[in-house]
Write a structure and sequence with these properties.
- The complex is a heterodimer.
- In chain A, about 20% of the residues lie in helices and about 30% in strands.
- Chain A contains 2 helices and 5 strands, in the order βαβββαβ.
- Chain A has a 3-stranded antiparallel beta sheet.
- Chain B is α+β, with helices and mostly antiparallel strands.
- Chain B has one domain: Cytochrome p450, CATH 1.10.630.
- In chain B, a hairpin with an 8-residue loop joins strand 13 and strand 14.
- The chains are: A alpha+beta, B alpha+beta.
- Bound molecules: protoporphyrin IX containing FE.
Chain lengths: ~70, ~425
Protein backbone atom coordinates (compact mmCIF):
# COMPACT_ATOMS: atom_id res chain seq x y z
CA UNK A 1 0.00 0.00 0.00
CA UNK A 2 1.40 3.37 -0.97
CA UNK A 3 1.25 6.24 1.49
CA UNK A 4 2.96 8.69 -0.84
CA UNK A 5 2.30 12.28 0.11
CA UNK A 6 1.90 14.87 -2.59
CA UNK A 7 1.32 18.61 -2.46
CA UNK A 8 -1.69 20.14 -4.18
CA UNK A 9 -2.30 23.64 -5.51
CA UNK A 10 -5.32 25.62 -6.72
CA UNK A 11 -5.22 27.74 -9.85
CA UNK A 12 -7.30 30.69 -8.66
CA UNK A 13 -7.93 31.88 -12.23
CA UNK A 14 -9.67 28.63 -13.09
CA UNK A 15 -11.42 28.03 -9.77
CA UNK A 16 -15.20 28.32 -10.12
CA UNK A 17 -15.90 27.89 -6.42
CA UNK A 18 -17.62 24.54 -6.77
CA UNK A 19 -16.51 23.64 -3.28
CA UNK A 20 -15.97 19.95 -3.95
CA UNK A 21 -12.39 20.14 -2.67
CA UNK A 22 -13.43 21.69 0.61
CA UNK A 23 -16.12 19.07 1.07
CA UNK A 24 -13.71 16.20 0.39
CA UNK A 25 -10.65 17.55 2.18
CA UNK A 26 -11.67 20.26 4.66
CA UNK A 27 -8.22 20.21 6.29
CA UNK A 28 -6.51 21.15 3.05
CA UNK A 29 -8.91 23.43 1.16
CA UNK A 30 -10.93 26.45 2.17
CA UNK A 31 -13.37 28.21 -0.14
CA UNK A 32 -13.45 31.89 0.67
CA UNK A 33 -16.93 33.03 1.77
CA UNK A 34 -17.04 36.20 -0.31
CA UNK A 35 -15.00 35.46 -3.38
CA UNK A 36 -15.74 31.73 -3.48
CA UNK A 37 -12.21 30.95 -4.56
CA UNK A 38 -10.57 27.94 -3.05
CA UNK A 39 -7.14 28.06 -1.53
CA UNK A 40 -4.85 25.59 0.11
CA UNK A 41 -4.58 25.92 3.86
CA UNK A 42 -1.72 24.48 5.86
CA UNK A 43 0.87 22.29 4.22
CA UNK A 44 -1.33 21.25 1.29
CA UNK A 45 -0.14 17.69 1.61
CA UNK A 46 -2.35 14.71 0.87
CA UNK A 47 -1.86 11.02 0.24
CA UNK A 48 -1.64 10.55 -3.50
CA UNK A 49 -4.86 8.54 -3.88
CA UNK A 50 -6.89 11.19 -2.05
CA UNK A 51 -5.22 13.97 -4.02
CA UNK A 52 -6.17 12.16 -7.23
CA UNK A 53 -9.81 12.10 -6.16
CA UNK A 54 -9.91 15.87 -5.53
CA UNK A 55 -8.08 16.63 -8.76
CA UNK A 56 -10.57 14.47 -10.61
CA UNK A 57 -13.63 15.85 -8.84
CA UNK A 58 -12.78 19.53 -9.31
CA UNK A 59 -15.36 20.72 -11.86
CA UNK A 60 -13.15 23.61 -12.92
CA UNK A 61 -10.06 21.45 -13.40
CA UNK A 62 -8.30 23.98 -11.16
CA UNK A 63 -6.45 21.64 -8.81
CA UNK A 64 -3.13 20.07 -9.60
CA UNK A 65 -0.48 18.04 -7.91
CA UNK A 66 2.56 20.27 -7.79
CA UNK A 67 5.09 18.32 -5.87
CA UNK A 68 5.43 14.68 -5.08
CA UNK A 69 6.92 14.29 -1.61
CA UNK A 70 9.15 11.53 -0.36
CA UNK A 71 7.18 8.50 0.80
CA UNK A 72 6.34 8.85 4.47
CA UNK A 73 7.99 6.27 6.68
CA UNK B 1 -11.44 14.74 -49.85
CA UNK B 2 -14.50 15.02 -47.65
CA UNK B 3 -14.79 12.17 -45.26
CA UNK B 4 -18.16 10.52 -45.25
CA UNK B 5 -20.60 11.81 -42.66
CA UNK B 6 -22.83 9.37 -40.80
CA UNK B 7 -26.25 10.87 -40.27
CA UNK B 8 -28.05 10.91 -36.92
CA UNK B 9 -30.77 8.24 -36.99
CA UNK B 10 -33.48 10.48 -35.49
CA UNK B 11 -34.63 14.07 -35.91
CA UNK B 12 -32.96 15.55 -32.85
CA UNK B 13 -34.36 19.02 -33.55
CA UNK B 14 -37.93 17.87 -33.32
CA UNK B 15 -39.45 17.92 -29.81
CA UNK B 16 -41.62 14.98 -30.91
CA UNK B 17 -38.50 12.77 -30.85
CA UNK B 18 -38.46 13.33 -27.07
CA UNK B 19 -42.18 13.05 -26.46
CA UNK B 20 -41.74 9.74 -24.59
CA UNK B 21 -38.57 10.82 -22.81
CA UNK B 22 -34.99 10.00 -23.83
CA UNK B 23 -34.79 8.35 -27.29
CA UNK B 24 -32.72 5.44 -25.94
CA UNK B 25 -32.54 3.43 -29.15
CA UNK B 26 -31.36 6.26 -31.36
CA UNK B 27 -28.77 7.29 -28.75
CA UNK B 28 -27.52 3.71 -28.35
CA UNK B 29 -27.07 3.46 -32.11
CA UNK B 30 -25.13 6.73 -32.17
CA UNK B 31 -22.89 5.73 -29.24
CA UNK B 32 -22.00 2.49 -30.98
CA UNK B 33 -20.64 4.32 -34.03
CA UNK B 34 -16.92 4.96 -34.22
CA UNK B 35 -17.45 8.61 -35.23
CA UNK B 36 -19.76 11.45 -34.29
CA UNK B 37 -23.14 11.61 -36.05
CA UNK B 38 -24.09 14.51 -38.28
CA UNK B 39 -27.39 16.34 -38.60
CA UNK B 40 -27.46 18.44 -41.76
CA UNK B 41 -28.80 22.02 -41.83
CA UNK B 42 -32.58 22.06 -41.62
CA UNK B 43 -33.24 25.42 -43.22
CA UNK B 44 -33.87 28.74 -41.47
CA UNK B 45 -32.04 28.90 -38.15
CA UNK B 46 -31.25 25.17 -38.11
CA UNK B 47 -27.53 24.81 -38.80
CA UNK B 48 -25.98 21.41 -39.09
CA UNK B 49 -24.35 19.92 -36.01
CA UNK B 50 -22.31 17.02 -34.73
CA UNK B 51 -23.80 14.94 -31.93
CA UNK B 52 -21.54 13.78 -29.12
CA UNK B 53 -23.16 10.86 -27.34
CA UNK B 54 -20.35 9.06 -25.50
CA UNK B 55 -19.28 9.94 -21.98
CA UNK B 56 -15.55 10.58 -22.57
CA UNK B 57 -15.87 13.04 -25.47
CA UNK B 58 -18.68 14.91 -23.69
CA UNK B 59 -16.26 15.52 -20.82
CA UNK B 60 -13.53 16.47 -23.27
CA UNK B 61 -15.67 19.08 -25.05
CA UNK B 62 -17.07 20.36 -21.78
CA UNK B 63 -13.69 20.98 -20.20
CA UNK B 64 -12.02 22.74 -23.11
CA UNK B 65 -13.66 26.15 -23.24
CA UNK B 66 -10.92 27.59 -25.49
CA UNK B 67 -11.59 25.12 -28.26
CA UNK B 68 -15.32 24.61 -27.70
CA UNK B 69 -16.79 28.03 -27.07
CA UNK B 70 -20.07 28.96 -25.38
CA UNK B 71 -19.77 32.61 -26.40
CA UNK B 72 -19.27 32.12 -30.13
CA UNK B 73 -22.68 31.07 -31.42
CA UNK B 74 -25.67 29.96 -29.43
CA UNK B 75 -25.58 27.13 -26.85
CA UNK B 76 -28.95 25.88 -28.00
CA UNK B 77 -29.54 23.89 -31.12
CA UNK B 78 -30.79 26.75 -33.28
CA UNK B 79 -28.89 29.82 -34.43
CA UNK B 80 -29.57 33.39 -33.50
CA UNK B 81 -28.12 36.70 -34.69
CA UNK B 82 -25.16 38.29 -32.92
CA UNK B 83 -27.23 41.16 -31.53
CA UNK B 84 -29.70 38.66 -30.10
CA UNK B 85 -26.85 36.64 -28.61
CA UNK B 86 -25.43 39.60 -26.77
CA UNK B 87 -28.85 40.86 -25.69
CA UNK B 88 -29.55 37.52 -24.00
CA UNK B 89 -26.13 36.63 -22.69
CA UNK B 90 -25.82 35.46 -19.11
CA UNK B 91 -22.73 33.69 -17.74
CA UNK B 92 -23.80 30.39 -19.28
CA UNK B 93 -23.40 31.98 -22.73
CA UNK B 94 -19.93 33.38 -22.02
CA UNK B 95 -16.41 32.00 -21.88
CA UNK B 96 -13.75 32.52 -19.22
CA UNK B 97 -12.48 34.96 -18.04
CA UNK B 98 -15.67 37.07 -18.31
CA UNK B 99 -17.74 34.05 -17.33
CA UNK B 100 -15.64 33.38 -14.28
CA UNK B 101 -15.93 36.95 -12.99
CA UNK B 102 -19.73 36.81 -13.19
CA UNK B 103 -19.95 33.36 -11.65
CA UNK B 104 -17.93 34.46 -8.64
CA UNK B 105 -20.61 36.98 -7.76
CA UNK B 106 -22.90 34.17 -6.68
CA UNK B 107 -20.85 31.01 -6.31
CA UNK B 108 -20.25 31.29 -2.57
CA UNK B 109 -24.00 30.86 -2.01
CA UNK B 110 -23.93 27.42 -3.67
CA UNK B 111 -20.92 25.57 -2.32
CA UNK B 112 -21.62 22.21 -0.67
CA UNK B 113 -20.76 23.80 2.68
CA UNK B 114 -23.05 26.77 2.19
CA UNK B 115 -26.08 24.85 0.89
CA UNK B 116 -26.26 22.98 4.19
CA UNK B 117 -27.62 26.22 5.64
CA UNK B 118 -30.71 25.86 3.39
CA UNK B 119 -31.55 22.41 4.70
CA UNK B 120 -34.17 23.44 7.27
CA UNK B 121 -36.03 25.60 4.77
CA UNK B 122 -35.91 22.91 2.09
CA UNK B 123 -37.19 20.31 4.54
CA UNK B 124 -40.10 22.54 5.56
CA UNK B 125 -41.14 23.19 1.94
CA UNK B 126 -41.02 19.50 1.14
CA UNK B 127 -42.99 18.55 4.26
CA UNK B 128 -45.69 21.07 3.43
CA UNK B 129 -46.14 19.73 -0.09
CA UNK B 130 -46.05 16.04 0.81
CA UNK B 131 -48.47 16.47 3.69
CA UNK B 132 -50.92 18.33 1.45
CA UNK B 133 -50.68 15.61 -1.21
CA UNK B 134 -51.28 12.90 1.37
CA UNK B 135 -54.36 14.69 2.63
CA UNK B 136 -55.85 15.07 -0.80
CA UNK B 137 -55.08 11.42 -1.63
CA UNK B 138 -53.40 12.25 -4.93
CA UNK B 139 -53.27 14.62 -7.86
CA UNK B 140 -50.79 15.89 -10.44
CA UNK B 141 -47.42 15.09 -8.86
CA UNK B 142 -45.71 17.78 -10.92
CA UNK B 143 -48.01 20.57 -9.83
CA UNK B 144 -48.31 19.34 -6.24
CA UNK B 145 -44.67 18.45 -5.51
CA UNK B 146 -42.08 18.63 -8.28
CA UNK B 147 -42.73 22.18 -9.47
CA UNK B 148 -43.32 24.20 -6.28
CA UNK B 149 -40.37 22.86 -4.27
CA UNK B 150 -37.41 23.93 -6.42
CA UNK B 151 -38.95 27.26 -7.41
CA UNK B 152 -39.68 27.98 -3.76
CA UNK B 153 -36.11 27.17 -2.78
CA UNK B 154 -34.42 29.23 -5.50
CA UNK B 155 -36.86 32.14 -5.04
CA UNK B 156 -36.00 32.22 -1.33
CA UNK B 157 -32.31 32.38 -2.11
CA UNK B 158 -32.81 35.07 -4.75
CA UNK B 159 -35.17 37.08 -2.55
CA UNK B 160 -38.44 36.72 -4.51
CA UNK B 161 -41.32 37.06 -2.04
CA UNK B 162 -43.52 34.00 -1.46
CA UNK B 163 -46.55 35.75 -2.95
CA UNK B 164 -44.79 35.87 -6.35
CA UNK B 165 -43.65 32.24 -6.50
CA UNK B 166 -46.65 31.10 -8.57
CA UNK B 167 -46.02 33.87 -11.06
CA UNK B 168 -42.39 32.70 -11.39
CA UNK B 169 -43.58 29.13 -12.05
CA UNK B 170 -45.89 30.41 -14.76
CA UNK B 171 -43.20 32.52 -16.43
CA UNK B 172 -40.52 29.83 -16.37
CA UNK B 173 -43.02 27.27 -17.73
CA UNK B 174 -43.60 29.51 -20.70
CA UNK B 175 -39.88 29.94 -21.16
CA UNK B 176 -39.51 26.24 -21.87
CA UNK B 177 -42.60 26.40 -24.04
CA UNK B 178 -40.38 28.66 -26.17
CA UNK B 179 -38.30 25.59 -27.11
CA UNK B 180 -41.43 23.66 -28.01
CA UNK B 181 -43.59 23.58 -31.08
CA UNK B 182 -46.36 25.67 -29.45
CA UNK B 183 -45.15 29.27 -29.09
CA UNK B 184 -46.94 31.96 -27.03
CA UNK B 185 -48.52 35.11 -28.46
CA UNK B 186 -45.66 37.56 -29.14
CA UNK B 187 -47.38 40.27 -27.06
CA UNK B 188 -47.89 38.06 -24.00
CA UNK B 189 -46.81 39.67 -20.70
CA UNK B 190 -46.93 43.09 -22.31
CA UNK B 191 -43.96 42.22 -24.48
CA UNK B 192 -42.88 44.79 -27.04
CA UNK B 193 -39.35 43.42 -27.63
CA UNK B 194 -38.53 41.71 -30.90
CA UNK B 195 -38.91 38.00 -30.04
CA UNK B 196 -35.61 37.08 -31.65
CA UNK B 197 -33.83 39.14 -28.97
CA UNK B 198 -35.49 37.20 -26.14
CA UNK B 199 -34.20 33.96 -24.57
CA UNK B 200 -36.03 30.91 -25.94
CA UNK B 201 -37.66 33.48 -28.30
CA UNK B 202 -40.27 33.69 -25.59
CA UNK B 203 -42.26 36.74 -24.47
CA UNK B 204 -42.20 35.19 -20.99
CA UNK B 205 -38.53 36.20 -20.88
CA UNK B 206 -39.71 39.79 -21.15
CA UNK B 207 -42.00 39.17 -18.18
CA UNK B 208 -39.11 37.82 -16.13
CA UNK B 209 -36.84 40.73 -17.09
CA UNK B 210 -39.49 43.26 -16.06
CA UNK B 211 -40.09 41.45 -12.80
CA UNK B 212 -36.35 41.38 -12.04
CA UNK B 213 -35.99 45.06 -12.82
CA UNK B 214 -38.81 46.02 -10.44
CA UNK B 215 -37.52 43.82 -7.63
CA UNK B 216 -34.00 45.17 -8.18
CA UNK B 217 -35.31 48.72 -7.85
CA UNK B 218 -36.99 47.81 -4.59
CA UNK B 219 -33.80 46.26 -3.18
CA UNK B 220 -31.83 49.38 -4.01
CA UNK B 221 -33.77 51.25 -1.34
CA UNK B 222 -34.56 48.26 0.88
CA UNK B 223 -31.53 45.94 0.76
CA UNK B 224 -32.01 42.42 2.11
CA UNK B 225 -29.83 39.40 2.77
CA UNK B 226 -30.50 37.84 -0.63
CA UNK B 227 -28.89 37.35 -4.02
CA UNK B 228 -30.88 40.12 -5.72
CA UNK B 229 -29.33 42.61 -3.34
CA UNK B 230 -25.92 41.06 -3.88
CA UNK B 231 -26.26 41.40 -7.66
CA UNK B 232 -27.51 44.99 -7.41
CA UNK B 233 -24.53 45.91 -5.26
CA UNK B 234 -21.97 43.77 -7.08
CA UNK B 235 -19.05 45.22 -8.95
CA UNK B 236 -17.11 43.44 -11.66
CA UNK B 237 -13.76 45.12 -12.29
CA UNK B 238 -15.03 48.20 -10.48
CA UNK B 239 -18.23 48.42 -12.53
CA UNK B 240 -21.81 47.68 -11.54
CA UNK B 241 -23.71 45.13 -13.63
CA UNK B 242 -25.58 46.70 -16.52
CA UNK B 243 -29.35 46.44 -16.60
CA UNK B 244 -29.18 43.60 -19.12
CA UNK B 245 -26.46 41.75 -17.19
CA UNK B 246 -28.59 41.96 -14.08
CA UNK B 247 -31.86 40.80 -15.64
CA UNK B 248 -30.13 38.04 -17.61
CA UNK B 249 -28.47 36.82 -14.42
CA UNK B 250 -31.77 36.73 -12.57
CA UNK B 251 -33.45 34.87 -15.40
CA UNK B 252 -30.68 32.29 -15.62
CA UNK B 253 -30.93 31.61 -11.89
CA UNK B 254 -34.69 31.17 -11.74
CA UNK B 255 -34.75 29.05 -14.86
CA UNK B 256 -31.73 26.89 -14.08
CA UNK B 257 -32.61 26.43 -10.43
CA UNK B 258 -36.12 25.39 -11.18
CA UNK B 259 -36.98 23.58 -14.38
CA UNK B 260 -34.12 21.11 -13.98
CA UNK B 261 -34.66 20.04 -10.39
CA UNK B 262 -38.37 19.86 -11.13
CA UNK B 263 -37.66 17.36 -13.91
CA UNK B 264 -35.66 15.11 -11.58
CA UNK B 265 -38.36 15.30 -8.93
CA UNK B 266 -41.05 14.49 -11.49
CA UNK B 267 -39.12 11.47 -12.77
CA UNK B 268 -38.53 10.37 -9.18
CA UNK B 269 -42.24 9.52 -8.92
CA UNK B 270 -41.87 7.16 -11.88
CA UNK B 271 -38.74 5.62 -10.36
CA UNK B 272 -40.48 5.09 -7.01
CA UNK B 273 -43.19 3.07 -8.71
CA UNK B 274 -41.17 1.27 -11.33
CA UNK B 275 -38.12 0.49 -9.20
CA UNK B 276 -39.79 0.08 -5.80
CA UNK B 277 -37.30 -2.64 -4.81
CA UNK B 278 -34.43 -0.16 -5.16
CA UNK B 279 -36.06 2.22 -2.73
CA UNK B 280 -36.70 -0.65 -0.31
CA UNK B 281 -33.00 -1.30 -0.49
CA UNK B 282 -32.29 2.35 0.28
CA UNK B 283 -34.73 2.26 3.18
CA UNK B 284 -32.84 -0.64 4.72
CA UNK B 285 -29.47 1.00 4.05
CA UNK B 286 -29.70 4.81 4.27
CA UNK B 287 -25.95 5.08 3.62
CA UNK B 288 -26.85 4.57 -0.06
CA UNK B 289 -28.55 7.98 -0.20
CA UNK B 290 -25.82 9.80 -2.17
CA UNK B 291 -25.80 7.05 -4.76
CA UNK B 292 -29.60 6.96 -4.95
CA UNK B 293 -29.72 10.72 -5.55
CA UNK B 294 -27.11 10.45 -8.29
CA UNK B 295 -29.04 7.60 -9.89
CA UNK B 296 -32.29 9.61 -9.94
CA UNK B 297 -30.42 12.50 -11.55
CA UNK B 298 -28.62 10.29 -14.08
CA UNK B 299 -31.77 8.39 -14.99
CA UNK B 300 -33.78 11.59 -15.42
CA UNK B 301 -31.03 13.62 -17.17
CA UNK B 302 -33.12 16.82 -16.98
CA UNK B 303 -31.02 18.86 -19.43
CA UNK B 304 -30.79 16.87 -22.64
CA UNK B 305 -27.95 18.81 -24.24
CA UNK B 306 -25.89 21.97 -24.58
CA UNK B 307 -24.17 23.04 -27.77
CA UNK B 308 -20.69 24.50 -28.34
CA UNK B 309 -18.97 26.13 -31.35
CA UNK B 310 -15.48 25.16 -32.50
CA UNK B 311 -12.91 27.96 -32.43
CA UNK B 312 -10.27 25.95 -34.37
CA UNK B 313 -10.08 22.82 -36.47
CA UNK B 314 -9.69 19.64 -34.46
CA UNK B 315 -10.44 15.93 -34.40
CA UNK B 316 -12.93 14.48 -31.92
CA UNK B 317 -13.79 10.79 -31.72
CA UNK B 318 -12.07 10.19 -35.06
CA UNK B 319 -14.19 12.88 -36.66
CA UNK B 320 -12.47 15.86 -38.29
CA UNK B 321 -14.12 19.11 -37.16
CA UNK B 322 -13.73 22.62 -38.58
CA UNK B 323 -13.61 25.99 -36.84
CA UNK B 324 -17.21 27.21 -36.70
CA UNK B 325 -18.70 23.71 -36.56
CA UNK B 326 -21.34 23.04 -33.93
CA UNK B 327 -21.09 20.15 -31.50
CA UNK B 328 -24.00 19.11 -29.30
CA UNK B 329 -23.19 17.32 -26.06
CA UNK B 330 -26.11 14.98 -25.42
CA UNK B 331 -25.83 14.52 -21.65
CA UNK B 332 -28.88 12.28 -21.79
CA UNK B 333 -27.00 9.95 -24.15
CA UNK B 334 -23.65 10.00 -22.32
CA UNK B 335 -25.46 9.12 -19.08
CA UNK B 336 -26.37 5.76 -20.59
CA UNK B 337 -22.96 5.02 -22.11
CA UNK B 338 -22.51 1.27 -21.65
CA UNK B 339 -18.71 1.73 -21.49
CA UNK B 340 -19.12 3.70 -18.27
CA UNK B 341 -22.39 2.55 -16.72
CA UNK B 342 -22.81 -1.18 -16.43
CA UNK B 343 -26.27 -2.11 -17.81
CA UNK B 344 -27.16 1.55 -18.16
CA UNK B 345 -30.92 1.04 -18.36
CA UNK B 346 -30.95 -0.62 -14.96
CA UNK B 347 -31.89 1.78 -12.16
CA UNK B 348 -29.44 0.91 -9.43
CA UNK B 349 -29.00 2.74 -6.13
CA UNK B 350 -25.71 0.94 -5.52
CA UNK B 351 -24.05 2.27 -8.69
CA UNK B 352 -20.59 3.69 -7.88
CA UNK B 353 -20.31 7.49 -7.76
CA UNK B 354 -17.28 7.48 -10.03
CA UNK B 355 -17.01 8.05 -12.86
CA UNK B 356 -19.67 10.70 -12.34
CA UNK B 357 -22.70 11.06 -14.60
CA UNK B 358 -22.84 14.22 -16.73
CA UNK B 359 -26.36 15.40 -15.90
CA UNK B 360 -24.82 18.54 -14.36
CA UNK B 361 -22.46 18.92 -17.30
CA UNK B 362 -19.25 17.16 -18.23
CA UNK B 363 -17.07 19.31 -15.97
CA UNK B 364 -15.24 22.53 -16.68
CA UNK B 365 -16.05 26.17 -16.18
CA UNK B 366 -19.84 25.90 -16.60
CA UNK B 367 -20.35 22.85 -14.41
CA UNK B 368 -23.76 23.30 -12.81
CA UNK B 369 -23.57 25.95 -10.13
CA UNK B 370 -26.56 24.45 -8.36
CA UNK B 371 -25.44 20.82 -8.24
CA UNK B 372 -24.97 20.73 -4.45
CA UNK B 373 -28.35 22.43 -3.97
CA UNK B 374 -30.16 20.12 -6.39
CA UNK B 375 -28.63 17.08 -4.70
CA UNK B 376 -29.74 18.36 -1.30
CA UNK B 377 -33.29 18.94 -2.53
CA UNK B 378 -33.61 15.53 -4.15
CA UNK B 379 -32.09 13.78 -1.11
CA UNK B 380 -34.50 15.43 1.30
CA UNK B 381 -37.44 14.66 -0.96
CA UNK B 382 -36.54 10.96 -1.13
CA UNK B 383 -35.89 10.81 2.60
CA UNK B 384 -39.18 12.55 3.40
CA UNK B 385 -41.16 10.22 1.12
CA UNK B 386 -39.60 7.14 2.71
CA UNK B 387 -39.98 8.36 6.27
CA UNK B 388 -43.69 9.07 5.71
CA UNK B 389 -44.15 5.62 4.21
CA UNK B 390 -45.78 7.22 1.17
CA UNK B 391 -46.92 4.59 -1.27
CA UNK B 392 -47.30 6.09 -4.76
CA UNK B 393 -49.43 4.63 -7.54
CA UNK B 394 -49.63 6.02 -11.04
CA UNK B 395 -53.12 7.05 -12.08
CA UNK B 396 -52.18 7.94 -15.66
CA UNK B 397 -49.31 8.05 -18.13
CA UNK B 398 -46.74 10.82 -17.83
CA UNK B 399 -47.16 13.73 -20.24
CA UNK B 400 -43.71 14.94 -21.23
CA UNK B 401 -42.76 18.59 -21.73
CA UNK B 402 -42.78 19.34 -25.45
CA UNK B 403 -39.07 20.13 -25.77
CA UNK B 404 -35.82 18.76 -27.18
CA UNK B 405 -33.86 20.60 -24.47
CA UNK B 406 -35.48 19.68 -21.15
CA UNK B 407 -36.47 16.12 -20.29
CA UNK B 408 -39.37 17.40 -18.22
CA UNK B 409 -42.73 15.99 -17.25
CA UNK B 410 -45.68 18.31 -17.44
CA UNK B 411 -48.33 16.10 -15.89
CA UNK B 412 -48.26 12.90 -13.87
CA UNK B 413 -51.42 11.84 -12.07
CA UNK B 414 -50.72 9.87 -8.89
CA UNK B 415 -52.61 8.35 -5.97
CA UNK B 416 -51.02 8.09 -2.55
CA UNK B 417 -51.72 5.66 0.23
C1 LIG C 1 -31.13 18.19 -11.17
C2 LIG C 1 -30.99 19.48 -11.26
C3 LIG C 1 -30.08 20.19 -12.22
C4 LIG C 1 -29.51 19.76 -13.38
C5 LIG C 1 -29.65 18.41 -14.05
C6 LIG C 1 -28.70 20.87 -13.88
C7 LIG C 1 -27.97 20.80 -15.06
C8 LIG C 1 -27.12 21.81 -15.50
C9 LIG C 1 -26.29 21.71 -16.67
C10 LIG C 1 -26.23 20.52 -17.62
C11 LIG C 1 -25.60 22.87 -16.78
C12 LIG C 1 -24.57 23.24 -17.86
C13 LIG C 1 -23.25 22.64 -17.51
C14 LIG C 1 -22.19 22.88 -18.53
O1 LIG C 1 -22.38 23.65 -19.49
O2 LIG C 1 -21.10 22.28 -18.36
C15 LIG C 1 -25.99 23.70 -15.67
C16 LIG C 1 -25.52 24.97 -15.45
C17 LIG C 1 -26.05 25.80 -14.48
N1 LIG C 1 -26.92 25.46 -13.45
FE1 LIG C 1 -27.77 23.66 -13.18
N2 LIG C 1 -28.81 21.93 -13.04
C18 LIG C 1 -29.63 21.56 -12.00
C19 LIG C 1 -29.99 22.34 -10.91
C20 LIG C 1 -29.60 23.64 -10.72
C21 LIG C 1 -29.97 24.45 -9.59
C22 LIG C 1 -30.79 24.00 -8.39
C23 LIG C 1 -29.42 25.67 -9.80
C24 LIG C 1 -29.56 26.82 -8.84
C25 LIG C 1 -28.65 27.63 -8.52
C26 LIG C 1 -28.68 25.63 -11.06
C27 LIG C 1 -27.98 26.68 -11.62
C28 LIG C 1 -27.18 26.58 -12.73
C29 LIG C 1 -26.45 27.71 -13.28
C30 LIG C 1 -26.47 29.13 -12.78
C31 LIG C 1 -25.73 27.22 -14.39
C32 LIG C 1 -24.77 28.00 -15.30
C33 LIG C 1 -23.39 27.86 -14.75
C34 LIG C 1 -22.32 28.52 -15.58
O3 LIG C 1 -22.55 28.86 -16.75
O4 LIG C 1 -21.22 28.72 -15.04
N3 LIG C 1 -28.81 24.38 -11.58
N4 LIG C 1 -26.92 23.03 -14.89
Amino acid sequence: MSADLVRVAVDSERCIGGGQCEMLEPEVFLVDDDEAISSVIGSGELPRDRADVVVHRCPGAAISIVQPQRPSE
Amino acid sequence: MLSERVLAPADLQDPATFSQGIPQEAFAEMRARPTLSWTPPGGGDRTGFWSVTRHAPVSEVSRDTDLYSSAVGHIQIYDIDDDALSARASMIDLDPPVHTRLRRLVSSAFTPRHVQSYETAVRARIAERLDALMQSGGGNWVEAVAAPIPIGVICDIMGVPESDHDYMIELTDHLVAGTSSKPLEPSAYGNTTDLRLLPFNSPAAHGINEYARALGERRRTEPADDLITKLIEAEVDGERLTDAEFTNFFRLMVFAGNETTRASMAHLALHLVEFADQFERLRSDPSLMDQAVEEVIRYSSPILYFRRTLTRDTVLQDTPLRAGDKVVMWYAAANFDEEVFDEPLRFDVTRPLRPPNVAFGGGGAHFCLGAPLARLEVAILIESILSRGINLRLAGDPVYVDSNFVNGIEHLEVEVG
